[in-house]
Fold this sequence. Notes:
InterPro entries: DUF1453. The chain has helices at residues 3-21, 34-46, 55-79, 96-118, 125-147; strands at 24-25, 81-84, 90-93. By secondary structure, it is mainly alpha-helical. It has one domain (3-147). Strand 2 (81-84) and strand 3 form a beta hairpin. The mean pLDDT is 88.
Amino acid sequence: MDIARVLVIALVVVFVLVRRFGGRPVKDQDRLWVLPAILVAVGVGEGGLIAPAHPVLSVVLLAAGIAAACATGLLMGRAMTLWREPDGTLWAKGNRTVLAFFGLSLATRAALALLGYAVGVPVRNGALLVTLASWILAQGLALAARSRRVPATV
Length: 154
């Protein structure tokens, strides 16, 4: 993995975190698919989703990474603070619980990467990007589901 790719992945994570922890209006839910779709397309295009030397192990680790990313993403999306401004605009903001789930997300990703390294399945960019896309999409879906239940202001 070269430094440019690591920087791109780090910038995407920072972008998502800034959006989660700085209060922001919840906009059109149709857009929640855009960034994950781009990340998946780039991840699949980069390849490395399945290690040729260990195809079964790499599929298992990729599936576990996607499952863990979806789980922690859903937890983060459910934990975000939601409110409506007097003008009716819906806002979302991260909190300490979201930060704790983010730490859990990093820890599970690191554990899976170490496990992969131990069994000879190196972490590849494509797998990281697909996992990141799953994490972002799960957060967005959880937030979208919750946002429909926030009552309108009177």
